[in-house]
Amino acid sequence: xxxxxxxxxxxxxxxxxxxxxxxxxxxxxxxxxxxxxxxxxxxxxxxxxxxxxxxxxxxxxxxxxxxxxxxxxxxxxxxxxxxxxxxxxxxxxxxxxxxxxxxxxxxxxxxxxxxxxxxxxxxxxxxxxxxxxxxxxxxxxxxxxxxxxxxxxxxxxxxxxxxxxxxxxxxxxxxxxxxxxxxxxxxxxxxxxxxxxxxxxxxxxxxxxxxxxxxxxxxxxxxxxxxxxxxxxxxxxxxxxxxxxxxxxxxxxxxxxxxxxxxxxxxxxxxxxxxxxxxxxxxxxxxxxxxxxxxxxxxxxxxxxxxxxxxxxxxxxxxxxxxxxxxxxxxxxxxxxxxxxxxxxxxx
Length: 348
Description:
Blueprint: H1 10-21, E1 40-46, H2 53-66, E2 70-77, H3 84-94, E3 102-104, E4 123-124, E5 127-128, H4 143-153, E6 159-163, H5 168-175, H6 186-193, E7 194-200, H7 215-218, H8 221-230, E8 235-238, H9 240-244, E9 247-248, H10 250-255, H11 264-272, E10 279-280, H12 282-291, E11 299-300, E12 304-308, E13 314-318, E14 324-328, H13 331-345
Parallel strand pairs: 1-2, 1-6, 2-3, 6-7, 7-8, 8-14
Antiparallel strand pairs: 4-5, 9-10, 11-14, 12-13
Helix pairs in contact: 1-13, 2-11, 2-12, 4-5, 5-6, 5-8
């Protein structure tokens, strides 16, 4: 776990990191034997509202886009509550990108409001604290239509999908038929347009000697299984053991977000579980790998196949012809990953 002394606040830590990153030039990454498009066209699939790491991950994507490293094509949501889409729109608008398309699920999975999604309707006097246009998930289109539109418009073999929620929307995308958006069925459209699926799901190392049944899998096991069995492009999984080992330092929440009077990331973090709690950052790791796969933040397993068991357990079977891999992390990389996550999430 990263510790900062009183004399070395997180802001100084982040600025030093920024100087180091300026000289980093992206090259090749997990791909279909072609150069990585730059900036990376990215779709963010999230169950935002169930945990706060989704919010930090979304802020991190906006920071990466500001740096010219990615382009956020759409956000699609797998938490079925009316407040998730307005909150997402409020965060996007805060970062100056209120035009990013947002799609929602109608699955009924995790309909609870959660601890911080109500910030979307928070008012200071007569004005919304976080201005935005989308007032309810009822007014948002279905996620599958947004996914199909975003993929259809993208160049072939270019899109990276980051899934940090349930597999519901992507499983439905695979089953989608040709329509007025695209003459291609879902599987064909994915195969032609998607370069990589970066997924926060599963567990590939024992936790306290036991196999962990990871949340994003067990909330919709049939969809997670369909994704593992049928997704037609490479998948890289970031397992539970990765995120649990890179907690977000509470010092950053207290020190690094003061450039705005009200900041949705810091406020959501405090409402979810206030400092001094250091929240594990599962979802951010999938974003970091998706956009910066070649900077040695992580090691990656050999190729193989992820098998989803009926109880939601994830097993990995090595296979040189397989299209799945999973992230691994050593102690040196852990420090670099935490540093980068703080820098990017808190970037003004």
